[in-house]
Amino acid sequence: MRHPEAPRLDLVEDLHGHRVADPYRWLEDPADERTVTWAAAQDELAAQLLGSLPARPSFADRLTRLVHAGAVGIPVWRRGRAFSTRRDPGQEHAVLRVTEPDGSVRVLVDPIALDPAGTTTLDAWSPSWEGDRLAYQVSVGGDEESQLYVLDVATGQLLEGPIDRCRYSPVGWLPGGEELYYVRRLAPELVPAGEEQFHRRVWRHRVGADPDTDVLVHGEGSDPSTYFGARTSADGRWLVVSASVGTAPRDDVWLADLSGDAQLRPLQVGVDAQLTAWVARDGRLWLHSDRDAPRSRLAVADPADPASWTPEAWTEVIGQSDEGVLSDVALVDGPDGDLRVLAVHAVDATDRLSLWAGDGSGRLAEVTGLRPGSVSGVSAPPEGGTTAWVGYTDYATPPSVLRWDAADPAALTTHEQAPVDGDVPDLRVVEAHATSADGTPVHLFVLSAAGTPDTPRPTVLYGYGGFNVSLTPAYSAQALAWVAAGGVWVVANLRGGSEHGEEWHRAGMRERKQNVFDDFAAAAQHLIATGWTTPAQLAVMGGSNGGLLVGAMTTQHPDLVAAVVCSAPLLDMVRYELFGLGRTWNDEYGTAADAEELGWLLGYSPYHRVVEGTAYPAVLFTTFESDTRVDPLHARKLAAALQHATSAEAPIVLRRELSVGHGARAVSRTVGLAADQLAFLAAHTGLTPASPSDTEPPTGG
């Protein structure tokens, strides 16, 4: 295969005593004529190669059915109204609905109605405490530059908007729905050039007023990359403001009594720990924290008594578990009206539910009716009640909602089931553990079709390993399509995630980042050694931080895998902070501005680990040109480097996509991307799927 030519610069810089070559620096500029010409040649190569893959029509057919299974979001309750999202088969995006107390359902926000082209996405939403107003945020073309709107729930009338610069903005309503707290960036002309994506502040806003008249609440003098949270109590008395610099696993938190002087007083400042705080209907300050408890605990204090805010004075409600990680809670009432806590713990990346006494006297019951899978959240009306709603998914169940009631605390019933096409294969899920280079056990979920022979088969190994993200069982059309075609799909729970708490996260960040790559390599070696697959049949796949993961796998263990899908990746770890939101991640990775930390980064940076004359596996890079989180330049640079260096015949392909970004996208776009990715992996691992239409009767729905 002839890859497009890419000029190599003789550019070598001395960085803290390291000689660092960067021959494709020019590919950082998308407007450079050389980049434009090179990218057009890459587009032509990708279209020719991907369009001719024999398995693509079969995967597209099956993915269309599986993706259209639908999804249902967990409801948020306000005074008898339930707000939730739902996507039905045939819909490109989920719609936001309200269910009235009489059971009638209305659509409040439909992204397709706003933009028939399908490039508008619903980023976030928050109903007022009374449920009569809704703040929601949308963005266009994948840029995630959220604009804030407010509408009247009863009439659907737009009350204001758009308010710009609201990316990643929480909304904390005050009672009455006339005012809210939110987060907005400073105007571009007020910040240094190149820092327009930063400099957030917390504001108090009156609905319908000019945002330029908003009252500044907090944020002056903060680090430019700080993210803020704002949360109010239902009675309007208390405001909690939180701050974290970039994605650092630590929070500063303040509490203000709005009925008094409204001064923000420090609840936790300068502490290396995470804390979520809120004042609930019982008047107590609830504290969910990993402070001195890396698997997290739940405690209470008195919001009116600062002396009770120190951890030594907290009253513990749910202590740290010996093995499970406390991830979410909902306050519910018992049959006698006593306050209880419905809690979610993750054990080896599988969620479990249990019921606890609100006074801290201990566990009351296990919810045994929960199947092995993932809880996306638990929700209960803020005014109280004996019922809670549980978001649930597993490898064969699309996101759905279960109902829990105090009358039968061990049981769950179906509240709203996402539609299923009937095309879901009968899954066999095996849990296993690989042993990493330093002896650490690494948990694996191994998915295959029930009844398939236990012989080596084409296998996809998927991972992420960063930013405290846990890979628990979840419905994946891509995984199901691969399994239905006869392959094996494996999810690895690597260090850097939250599967075992904050210690597990920190064991895979900064100077310990190589642990993540060692865990992934150990998972691959385990699958080969135990007969699931062979190096010629093994592929790896990951996106974003997971793109860094598979980029490192490609450059550190090129002989271990046959094919790679590397999507929206970070790959030049020396210069990642200079683009997009890169500077917000330096607590996770380290910074090239520091001599020691540059050494960490150079130790694994995929772009800097390419060795000329190496037989690299087949690699498909997929990028999104509107991505404002991870700049597509990373994939361009490593694609060029691998195309130049590889001694193998396997292709190195760059697939670019316009008008989409890092996050949400239309369903049809999802199908097209996933079909290309799976067909590419199939071609290079020997998987030959049959078309669903050739082997199965037609299904309805």
Quick synopsis:
Keywords: Hydrolase, Protease, Serine protease. One of its GO terms (biological process) is proteolysis. With 701 residues, the chain is α+β, with helices and mostly antiparallel strands.
Rounded Rg? 25 Å
**Quaternary structure type:** single chain
- According to DSSP, the number of beta strands is 39
| CATH homologous superfamily designation of the domain at 12-65 and 422-685 | Alpha/Beta hydrolase fold, catalytic domain
How much beta, percentage-wise? 25-35%
Any idea what the CATH architecture of the domain at 12-65 and 422-685 is?
3-Layer(aba) Sandwich
Main sheet strand line-up? 32-33-35-34-36-37-38-39
Sum up the overall morphology in one term: globular
Descriptive account of the structure:
- This protein is an alpha+beta fold.
- Among the domains are: 12-65 and 422-685, Rossmann fold, CATH 3.40.50; 71-232, Prolyl oligopeptidase, N-terminal domain (Methylamine Dehydrogenase, Chain H, 7 Propeller).
- Helices cover 18% and strands 33% of the residues.
- The protein is built from twelve helices and 39 strands.
- The strands form nine sheets. Strands 32-33-35-34-36-37-38-39 form an eight-stranded mixed sheet, with helices on both faces. Strands 3, 4, 5, 6 and 7 form a five-stranded antiparallel sheet that branches.
